[in-house]
Amino acid sequence: MLTADYTFLNERLASHYGIPDVAGDEFRRVSYPDDSRRGLLGHGSVLLLTSMSARRSPVLCGKWVMEVLMGTPPPPPNVPNFEATQSAAGGRLLTTRERLEMHRENPTCNSCHRFMDPI
Length: 119
Description:
By secondary structure, the chain is mainly alpha-helical. The chain has helices at 11-17, 44-49, 58-69, 96-105, 107-116; strands spanning 6-9, 28-31. Helix content is 38%, strand content 7%.
């Protein structure tokens, strides 16, 4: 379920995902051309659940993984807001990836991230 290298598509959906050589209205099993959408976590419906309107949200995705896949409550109230890690020492705005890396360095935060992030 998490690593399947195929999905079920019709022509319209295949076109939406940029997968070639699918014709007709009937859904059929189609192998992914690469590793970018493997398994349940690569499905557009799941990605949409864990996104903002114009971009992915690692925070929403992590919360969803914890609650739905791991059956654990959201982070404890003492976890600092993700926005609190927005700038580096020099005042430069950090990328989302850099902010997440700083967040995970906190031992309290890392206790959850070491289980959640690989998923």
